[in-house]
Amino acid sequence: MAAPKKGRSASAQSKPGRSLVLILIAIVALTGGMFVSGHTTPRLGIDLAGGTSITLRAEPEDGDQSAINKKNMDTAVDIMNRRVNGLGVSEAEVQTQGDRNIIVNIPKGTNSEEARKQVGTTAKLYFRPVLTTEVAGAGAAASPSPSASSSASGDADKDKATSSSSPSATPSATSTTQGRAVTGALKADATPSSSASPSGSPSPSASGSAPADDTSKLQAQYAALDCTKKAVRATAGEGAKPTASTVACGQNSQGQWQKYILGPAEVDGTDVDKAQAVFNTQTGAGWTVTMDFTSAGTKKFADITGKLAQNQSPQNQFAIVLDGEVVSDPYVRQALTGGNAEISGNFNQESAQSLSNMLSYGALPLTFKEDSVTTVTAALGGEQLQAGLIAGAIGLALVIIYLLAFYRGLSIIAIPSLLVSAILTYVIMSLLGPTIGFALNLPAVCGAIVAIGITADSFIVFFERVRDEIREGRTLRPAVERAWPRARRTILVSDFVSFLAAAVLFIVTVGKVQGFAFTLGLTTVLDVVVVFFFTKPLMTILARKKFFANGHKWSGLDPKGLGAKPPLRRTRRPARPTAGPVDPKEA
């Protein structure tokens, strides 16, 4: 049993080139992925690139701390992302930190005051009746289509009864509404295309149209509204009161932008008690969104759906408006009096969850207060980045000088190992930016500088173990193989402690300190990879070279310079005479 194990060990030792080839392939693959992705530099944080960082702290409105949970925080992040993107901000970052903080990082070149206003206020969710709608740029307004008949079963389940037909489209249709439907009362996926009305003005709805003196103004706003432009969408209907008609934009299921004239809000977000995405296996509808209303919301919803069910398309549609943008526009078949509704259509899990989150935000029992606002100019960010790079270069230079002075020829192994570690760190940081949103901030740069010492320490542990074996009188090749198991244990224990400290620091801290912890943990893992797949195999190969094997004085492994003991050899003793009878002749 021992012989095969010895053979495998010798084979592994004789082919260190395999490990070098493996790590070379990994470097080439990661570097190629970096260039293919187009992200050839690490993503810089606000403190290095310049911009504004806003820290918001969640506070429960009614004092119930259980309201601060992952679902509510994720919903708030989604809404704030929509708001920041509505400002036309590119590469803005909104993310949770800890269990009650949201960090909004807005890069340079953005109106930070407007951004603070947008992310710091509570979202407004309304249910408004649709007066007229058309695809942006189509130049034709949607006119009423025949409404489907509604039925009532006389029990609580009538709100979820499936409609059997949908309105038909007129031949001259130029627009479609958003592709969503509400089973039993609201339908949107089969919403028809509609013909253009001659005047393009809003028609009266059951819930009330715009007053006569405001009709011309509203019509002018609607005619000038170009929802294909982000800046226009961000300001559409701005300042409109819930009790007034307004214009709005929304995206339909085909990805086209539509513009709307909407009536006064009949139900607001606080009337929604709960909304969730559900996979409906009973009716075969697939992913749906269910809504439950409060007692006050139930009455409001029943009243407005009863009125809308009497109208023709598009005035039997309901627009769900979040922060002035239409996120869904299902249409009504019958009054919903049970206090709940189910929206169905061409949903997948992601889109159903997205709509349910938006509906939930209207009843989100959280407010957000600014904890801190940090603004860094681009010039200051550039100076800090330059200072960090200089500090890293000085640290690396000092390590190299130390290696050259004390380890001499062994620096031929240490310096390329540091270079490989630096390449892997740079490439992985560049790839982590677009994949997980990692941003290199000043504390992260500090973590990378500290990692230089951690990586060099691993080399020193290995080199000193090899030197100890040489001091015991062994030649270099056996010394390398005997030193590696002991050095490996020490390196793994040391790196485990460093990684554990980085993990704890990442978990218990928030803000920029997490950047330091993340970088420290990443470089610690890479240290293990480099030592195992590059440093040790390279040492094994160089141990076969005469310069190192013969212990040249500049190799760093000179036996005399290390105070090596002479090889231990056994001395031969003369054979002792055997006992026996004495020969009489000799006597």
Structure commentary:
The chain is of the alpha+beta class. It has a 5-stranded mixed barrel.
Characterize the overall form: elongated
Give the C-alpha Rg.
36 Å
The helix-and-strand class reads alpha+beta
- C-alpha end-to-end distance: 58 Å
Biggest sheet features: 5 strands, mixed, barrel
- Strand content is 15-25%
Number of helices: 16
Mean pLDDT: 75
Residue stretches low in confidence (pLDDT < 50, at least 5 long) are 1-12, 139-210
The total strand number stands at 16
User: What portion of residues is helical?
Assistant: 40-55%
Strand order of the largest sheet: 4-8-7-13-12
Characteristics:
45% helix, 587 residues, four-stranded antiparallel sheet, 16 helices
How would you summarize this macromolecular structure in one to three sentences?
The chain has about 575 residues and is α+β, with helices and mostly antiparallel strands. The chain has 16 helices and 16 strands.
